[in-house]
Amino acid sequence: MVGKIKVWYMTDEELASYVAKHPIKEPKKVSRKDSAKTSPDYKWRSKKANESSLKSKRA
């Protein structure tokens, strides 16, 4: 979608009412256990690569 960008400014009263409706919350802290699940599994990748190279050598 291509078009003009509109700049929209809030007045102080609009900003105060918006913040009252939508309070600013602190983000949840991610534990190290959860962050480990999202990291790539390099061991799996190397096992998979070794399996595929063995299959190609056998064929």
What would your notes on this structure say?
It is elongated, with a radius of gyration of 26 Å. With 59 residues, it is mostly helical. The mean pLDDT is 77. It is 58% helix and 0% strand. The longest helix has 17 residues, at 42-58. It has a domain at 26-59. The protein is built from three helices and no strands. The two termini are 50 Å apart. Residues 26-50 have a biased composition (Basic and acidic residues). Residues 26-59 are annotated as: Disordered.
The percent range for strand residues is under 5%
Number of strands: 0
Poorly predicted runs: none
- The N- and C-terminal alpha carbons lie at a distance of 50 Å
Question: Which word captures the global form?
Answer: elongated
Q: What is the chain-wise order of helices and strands? A: HHH
What structural class do you assign from the helix and strand content?
Answer: mainly alpha
What's the total helix number?
Answer: 3
The radius of gyration is 26 Å
Largest sheet: none
- Specify the helix fraction band: 55-70%
